[in-house]
Design a protein that fits this description.
The chain is mainly alpha-helical and about 1050 residues long. The protein is built from 41 helices and 10 strands. The protein is globular. It starts with 7 loop residues before the first helix and ends with a helix. Its main location: membrane.
């Protein structure tokens, strides 16, 4: 607004503030202005007649503008809020808008004055003057809270049919604000939104697209019928059928085009039928937007994102790749950044398109622009495969060494860890890489990564004991060298202490007593987590002292034990006192701390029979016999005694879902008493696993820590190594485990076979690409002056590109590598080229958490299939590629279209068979359409229930988020044991998470997709019946699933 109607005092105020030399001078001016405003507003409110009051309204408008200026500079002006509320009732439009503006800028969302404006908003929304209606609609977007929506929503809906297009547009914007505050408030306005999409004014239609996009994010299936309308609108826009005022640099309505593309990507994802209606218009939009201006590039980029999101089409993917090629080869850094971002989106599912941009990616990687370099590192992470993992991890590690931003460092640590665990070519390389990450990343590394490294060193490959011993010896020598460094992160010190304590005797450079002395010197360093780190060191020293001949101790070790036996940390104090108590008995020390026993099974006496003599003596002396509580299995589902009375001092909570027959979420914390929770489990654990005599590693000797998430009772025995580039090694049968154990430790997984991503790896194919045992990075360095005349001379950037794009479909084979490349890559830990065993990794946390259920030996038919080698391109997962090179998975396996194809044996399907069975990587319907419907399969709203592979801890975390509970008692004569129940629900596509024989309880989980709805099941098997508890987030889902289980379990 112009300043012609403002007084000279206001301009003097603005000028004085602008010329102030310090914050203190500015504050003095504002304080003086606040005092003047208070006085002048009081004088205005004492007007004696209506004529004077009308004149004072003009002055009050200026005072409110000055009040906003005061608030903007951070001073309190609450004395004038009531004047702003009064100004909203003015009949003058300018004064009314100033009042609404002041209220929207000064009143907080919880301020009580907001409710005083509701009546005035209602009157203005029903006004005959469309300018007043527009003012009220703009105020609604700024002032309305969730509680105020019902009071004004009917008038807003009525405004959608107003004659003035500006009113209709602002009404749509108000409804969009309502959706942001409370999505349920516009849930029933689907028909009204569809009408606004067909409004005769393009501005109203454009405003409706924002609301329709947000609504479709929540429920995309409900708005897929609008795809033809969206396509028609987009086609009309590209054909310049909108008024010229919507053009921007000769591009018709670019912002509306971008919004339409976002909606089409959302609705076409994983839907072939819907996507096919978009292909033509997307190609046309991409072609017309290529005009060489920035807004056209924005539309092209959004088209690329849409093409890579919807069901794939080879023609569109080729056009998107061509557009990305122009971006990434541009000299403009902004366009180059756009090209790298778009290439990352394409490479995620179609890696072959990256092969044509090898040198451009190298240029971006070496560019001084920090932002472009970070985005290129993200692209490298998405391109990682077993062939180029060494080069990419080396680049990421180099960037981690130079980075200072904590968020970037955290992301780099996570990505290096994931790449190393998924694609490590050898155990030695994995150990060296993780050691570098521990040293550089420090506390940014997750503790589970250290646990996995310890387990790998302890278990080795399991195929050759000599190579496993060499691997451990290399690890010991590496960690002995690291002891010389003055600063070491806590997680690295814990890993070093555990390895040296277990396998220090393998060192050829130092004796056991020397290693113990070095560890004693290490313990006095400052650590971030002193109690845990020093406990690891004490346990390692204790293990080493147990190996000394004759039980002779070390003076420095005894001094350390005496020093820390009075530590304020109880765990550290206990370890020192235990050693001092056992020291007079050398044989007992050696027995409690055996050599290399970390993977040995422990015989646990669950009945505590060694205390029977003590109990008998106490009973003979008249002590009362223990009387266990008899209400542990009461109907409330939470164990523990409830017979004591407590005073409830908290207010009752109002039920959120008052449905009949559905139990709401309990106020009792989940981890305290769910019947399937382990004793003391579910709560927080220590940062690192305990070590030493009192460790969870397995008593004195210690075993590698159990990964959080393993089922209760599923003890980690002498498990074979399961690391590999493609997932869990199904060829390795799990050892026999003692009870209790999770269900399925002796049964094959669902469907009689293993999912494709769980087939055992055959190792990286031996090739010239630099991966696997024959990697160039393990070769000896050859100086340039020793090069022979026959050695090929290759450009260094070409070598880098060959290493980077190794294994990517369409990439040319790399040229011979020169020794100078080795300088950029950390040297391998292994001192002998024979230590190159393929690392067998855990493919996913959810699989490892299933315990024996997913580690069962494969079926005989599956083993036969695995013995038939077939060449499968690791990253060629393009949907338009030859079916012969991308065999169809079995219908019993889970299909993940976004995961790289594993380098495992697969049954090759002939092209004729492939034509008979269409490959639909986004929908399971095409894979199981030939299966006859089975009454044992449950469906909810037309969506089939499928097994959900989760751990016990994840089950507990989701229990509280599923408030709709239904309990039932099922009388059955066919189910008498836990195995009977597990087999029965397993046949109905429900995954048994864990079985607890001691209490005859089972927990299971299932889910339906699009959108995802989870179902959690708890069952107690009793004589003659079952006690079932079903929990979901939908009462109808809970009731129907409970009734279904009642039928199949009879």
């Amino acid at each position: 607004m112009s300043g012609s109607h403002l007084s000279k005092d206001f301009f003097e105020l603005v000028k004085s503030i602008g010329e102030s030399k310090s914050k203190q001078e500015e504050d003095r001016i504002i304080v003086s202005e606040v005092a003047q405003l208070k006085r002048k507003m009081t004088e205005l409110s004492q007007a004696s007649n209506s004529q004077a009051a009308q004149a004072n309204k003009k002055k009050q408008k200026e005072f409110l503008i000055r009040l906003m200026y005061v608030e903007m500079l951070g001073h309190d002006a609450s004395f004038g809020y009531i004047k702003a509320v009064e100004m909203t009732a003015s009949t003058n439009l300018i004064q009314k808008r100033v009042g609404y503006l002041t209220c929207s800028l000064t009143l907080s969302p919880t301020h009580e004055f907001r409710f005083m404006i509701i009546n005035q908003l209602q009157r203005d929304l029903q006004s005959a003057n469309h300018l007043e209606v527009c003012s009220a609609l703009m105020a609604v977007c700024k002032l309305v809270t969730t509680e105020m929506i019902p009071a004004v929503q009917p008038m807003i809906i009525e405004s959608l049919r107003h004659d003035i297009e500006l009113v209709r547009k602002k009404a749509v914007m108000a409804l969009h604000r309502f959706h942001q505050l409370n999505p349920d408030s516009v849930a029933g306005l689907g028909d009204s939104l569809r009408r606004t999409l067909c409004d005769r004014d393009p501005s109203v239609m454009g405003a409706a697209l924002c609301l329709l996009h947000d609504v479709a994010v929540i429920t995309p299936s409900a708005y897929k019928d609008l795809v033809p309308s969206y396509v028609s609108i987009l086609k009309q826009i590209t054909e310049h059928r909108l008024p010229r005022e919507f053009d921007y640099h000769r591009i018709p309505a670019p912002w509306i085009q971008i919004r339409l593309l976002k909606i089409l990507a959302l609705l076409g994802q994983a839907d072939q039928a819907t996507s096919e209606g978009m292909y033509e218009v997307l190609h046309d939009v991409m072609r017309r937007a290529d005009t060489g201006i920035n807004v056209g590039y924005a539309i092209i980029y959004e088209c690329v994102r849409t093409v890579t999101t919807i069901y794939p089409n080879s023609t569109l993917l080729d056009a998107a790749a061509a557009s990305i090629s122009r971006f990434i080869s541009s000299d403009n850094h902004n366009l180059k950044y756009l090209g790298v971002t778009g290439l990352a989106a394409i490479v995620k599912d179609h890696p072959r398109y990256a092969a044509a941009h090898q040198m451009a990616v190298i240029d971006c990687l070496e560019d001084p622009d920090e932002t472009l370099k970070r985005k290129t590192l993200d692209l490298l992470y998405r391109m990682t495969n077993p062939v180029n993992v060494e080069f990419i991890v080396a680049k990421l590690t180099t960037f981690l060494r130079e980075a200072t931003d904590v968020f970037l460092r955290t992301e780099l640590v996570s990505r290096i860890t994931q790449c190393a665990e998924r694609f490590a070519p050898s155990n030695a390389w994995y150990i060296q890489t993780m050691t570098n990450v521990f040293e550089l990343g420090g506390d940014l590394v997750k503790v589970e990564v250290a646990h996995n490294l310890m387990r790998l060193i302890a278990e080795g490959s399991g195929d050759d004991e000599d190579q496993d011993a060499e691997l451990r010896r290399d690890a010991v020598d590496t960690y002995l060298e690291l002891l010389e460094k003055p600063v070491l992160p806590d997680i690295l010190v814990c890993t070093m202490a555990w390895v040296l304590g277990e396998y220090g005797y393998l060192s050829e450079a130092m004796h056991v007593d020397e290693i113990a002395e070095r560890l004693c010197e290490l313990i006095d360093r400052p650590f971030d987590n002193e109690d845990v780190t020093r406990s690891y060191i004490v346990s390692a020293v204790t293990k080493l002292l147990a190996q000394l001949e004759g039980g002779t101790g070390l003076p420095v070790a005894e001094a350390m034990m005496h020093k820390y036996k009075t530590s304020r940390h109880i765990d550290l104090q206990q370890r020192c006192l235990e050693y001092l108590a056992l020291k007079p008995y050398p044989q007992l020390v050696a027995r409690t701390h055996p050599v290399d026993a970390s993977c040995e099974d422990l015989d646990v006496d669950v009945n505590l029979s060694f205390l029977q003599a003590f109990v008998d003596t106490a009973l003979a002396k008249g002590a009362p016999r223990y009387d266990p509580p008899d209400d542990l299995d009461d109907d409330d589902g939470f164990g523990g005694r409830r017979d004591h009375v407590q005073l409830n001092i908290e207010a009752y909570k109002k039920p959120e879902l008052p449905y009949s027959g559905v139990k709401l979420q309990s106020n009792d914390p989940l981890g305290a008493g769910v019947p399937w929770a382990p004793p003391g489990g579910g709560g927080p654990t220590s940062t690192y696993p305990a070590a030493g005599p009192a460790s969870t590693y397995g008593g004195a000797a210690g075993a590698p820590p159990v990964v959080a998430g393993a089922g209760w009772g599923s003890q980690q025995k002498s498990v074979r190594n399961v690391w590999g580039p493609t997932g869990i090694n199904a060829n390795e049968p799990p050892p026999q485990q003692h009870q209790p154990q999770p269900y399925g430790s002796n049964q094959p997984p669902y469907g009689g076979g293993y999912p494709q991503h769980q087939q055992p790896p055959q190792g990286p194919p031996p090739s010239q690409y630099g991966g696997g045992p024959s990697s160039t990075y393990h070769s000896e360095y050859r100086p340039d002056d020793e090069d022979t005349d026959d050695e090929p001379v290759v450009d260094e950037r070409a070598v880098m590109a060959a290493s980077l794009f190794g294994g990517v479909p369409g990439a040319a084979p790399p040229a011979a590598k020169r020794g100078s490349v080795k300088a950029d890559v950390p040297s391998s830990l292994s001192r002998k080229s024979t230590v190159k065993k393929t690392i067998k990794r855990k493919s996913a946390k959810a699989e490892s958490d299933q315990g024996g259920f997913l580690n069962a030996p494969p079926a005989p038919q599956q083993q036969q299939q695995q013995q038939q080698p077939a060449h499968v391109d690791l990253l060629d997962i393009s949907f338009d590629s030859n079916y012969a090179s991308n065999p169809l998975p079995s219908t019993n396996n889970y299909l993940d279209p976004f995961a790289p194809q594993p380098a495992a044996a697969a049954t090759v399907i002939s092209p004729s068979q492939a034509r008979e069975v269409p490959l639909d990587p986004f929908q399971m319907s095409g894979l199981i359409s030939s299966i006859v419907p089975d009454s044992t399969k449950f469906q909810h709203q037309g969506r089939a229930l499928e097994p959900w592979l989760i751990s016990t801890q994840e089950f507990g975390g989701r229990w509280g988020s599923c408030p709709c509970e239904v309990k039932s008692n099922v009388a059955t004569t066919t189910i008498r044991t836990l195995d009977d129940f597990c087999h029965r629900i397993h046949a109905s596509d429900i995954n048994p998470v864990e079985a607890i024989p001691q209490t005859s309880e089972v927990i299971a989980a299932g889910r339906v997709q699009n959108p995802e709805s989870v179902a959690l099941i708890h069952c107690k098997v009793r004589q003659g019946g079952l006690d079932l508890t079903v929990r979901t987030a939908d009462p109808a889902f809970s009731n129907s699933l409970s009734a279904f289980l009642g039928q199949i379990l009879k």
